[in-house]
Specification:
Number of strands: 8
Helix content: under 10%
Strand content: 35-45%
Structural class: mainly beta
Shape: elongated
Strand order of the largest sheet: 6-7-1-2-5-8
CATH superfamily: GroES chaperonin
CATH class: Mainly Beta
Number of domains: 1
Radius of gyration: 15 Å
Order of helices and strands: EEEEEEEE
Number of helices: 0
Distance between the termini: 32 Å
CATH topology: 10 Kd Chaperonin, Protein Cpn10, Chain O
Amino acid sequence: MSVKPLEDRILIKPLEAETKTASGIFLPESAKEKPMQGKIVATGPGKLLDNGKRAKPAVKKGDTVVFGKYAGTEIEIKKVPHIIMRESELLGLITG
């Protein structure tokens, strides 16, 4: 099974939550925060503009992005959690 996003939607695989703090303390499952970064798995063709042309997405497959804590819709693909959201819900692109 594969998912191809429509319009200006982006499919993201969230990065794993941290399992221990900077000081080395291991966190229980209940204390872990929801990850707000992820890798782009697929992008849609882009937003359809009023003139009939498409605006290409500013991000591409493989990019690492930052998104809001409650952005998008969580889905499961082959028992792996993913998030699908509009490109406008992305907060930033991580480079370097």
